[in-house]
Structures are given as structure tokens and as C-alpha cells.
Design brief:
With about 220 residues, the chain is α+β, with helices and mostly antiparallel strands. Helix content is about 50%, strand content about 10%. A hairpin with a 2-residue loop joins β3 and β4.
Length: about 220
């Protein structure tokens, strides 16, 4: 049985979608975002105490991109990743690494709050530069997604799940933000319509915009 260490409505949502797409049997271990020393097993699986993280027997995996690739390889019959030797395999690596290294952290400057940095002029400049960078990322996605309905063209993969989650984070930006254009929006709608993705949203207490129905709770527990 896979142990799935997660915080509802966080980056672990990508792993939840992949587990649901894979039809995996898993047991969720809910981590309180402010009490990451509990349970102690979380630190054993991921010493950085970040989600998502998986443990199955002696195998442990953490970091979102690595978790997604592991789930896809763990359940090859679900075809969530091209096989080794398939020309699309390197393309998948490129997508996962770009999403993890560029788009995922690209949201942080825009999400910064005044409480994090009380110097409003400096904060405004950080946000402005962050939005300009995200605009460039959105333009890149528009070009890439013009080649097919999915990240890998005609083939659905875990990269689409990762991109779906990160696109949804636009809902968290104060004042609003739209990542990319029509191609990104259409991709978001296609992924969101998949039954496994809808199940994952329900399990994470998320609506179609990835906003929490109960923002004061995580896995039913007050934060």
C-alpha cells in the first residue's frame, strides 16, 4: 500500500491526481501545514517536510516532479508516461523539469503578501517583475500547447496534471491573473473534465478553479 503524505489544496494535489489516474490503492497521511513534525514518519520519508511525499515499503519519493514520474512508472499499464525508448520520453522529462524548475516557483513573487515584506515599493517591484516573468511563461505555453491537446501532443501524461495544477494557481493571485491565453485555458478545461481529476478535486475539497470550499480547513481539520 502506498502512503501518500499530503496537505489538501497544496502541491500534493498533483500527486493526488496522478494516483487517481493510475487507479492506485493508497492511504493518505494528512499533514497539518503548521505541525509538520507530526507524524514523525513524515520526516523519515521527506527530511525537508514538504508535500507531496510517498512511501511504499522501502521506497520513498518526494519532490513533485519526481513523485509524478514515479507514479507513472509504477503503473505502466495506465500509460501516464511514454515508455523508455519512446521518442516522447525525453520530451516528458523536459516538461516535468520545466514545470518544476520554472513555472512552479514562478508563482511565488506574485503570491508575496505585504506581511512578508513591509516595504511596499520593493514589494510592488517584485510583483511587477514576477508578473512579467509569468507573462513570458504563459506565452511559451501558448506556443507549446498549439501542437496538440496535451503537453506531448496527442498523448496525455502526468505533465498535463502538473500543468493543470499550476495553471489553477492563478486563482490565488490578488487582483486576478490569467496565465497564457486560449490554448492554456482550453488545456485546463480538458484536464479538469477528466473523471480522475474531478475525484481528486473532491478529495482535496476544491472547486473547478482550485479554490477551497472550506479554506479554514485542511482534511477537515482547522488550520
Amino acid at each position: 500500500m502506498i502512503e501518500f503524505f499530503q496537505i489538501t489544496g497544496s502541491a500534493s494535489f498533483a500527486a493526488r491526481m496522478a494516483l487517481e489516474e493510475a487507479g492506485a490503492e493508497y492511504q493518505e497521511v494528512n499533514i497539518h501545514p503548521r505541525l509538520r513534525d507530526e507524524p514523525a514518519s513524515f520526516g523519515e520519508v521527506n527530511p525537508l517536510k514538504r508535500v507531496p511525499a510517498l512511501r511504499e515499503g522501502e521506497v520513498t519519493v518526494y519532490e513533485t516532479g519526481a513523485v509524478l514520474l514515479h507514479i507513472a512508472d509504477r503503473f505502466p499499464e495506465r500509460e501516464l508516461v511514454p515508455a523508455v525508448g519512446d521518442p516522447k520520453r525525453p520530451e516528458l522529462y523536459r516538461w516535468i523539469l520545466w514545470l518544476a524548475d520554472t513555472l512552479h516557483p514562478g508563482w511565488w513573487p506574485i503570491m508575496r503578501s505585504a506581511a512578508a515584506n513591509p516595504e511596499e515599493p520593493a514589494l510592488a517591484e517584485i510583483r511587477s517583475q514576477g508578473r512579467a516573468a509569468m507573462d513570458r511563461h504563459g506565452a511559451y505555453l501558448e506556443r507549446e500547447l498549439a501542437n496538440g491537446p496535451w503537453c506531448l501532443g496527442e498523448r496525455f501524461s502526468v505533465a498535463d496534471l502538473y500543468l493543470y495544477m499550476l495553471t489553477g494557481w492563478q486563482s490565488y493571485i490578488a487582483g486576478g491573473y490569467q496565465l497564457g491565453g486560449e490554448n492554456v485555458r482550453a488545456h485546463y478545461e480538458r484536464v479538469g473534465a477528466r473523471p480522475a481529476v474531478a475525484r481528486a478535486r473532491d478529495l482535496d475539497d476544491l472547486d473547478e478553479r482550485q479554490l477551497r470550499y472550506h479554506p479554514e480547513l485542511r482534511a477537515g481539520v482547522p488550520i
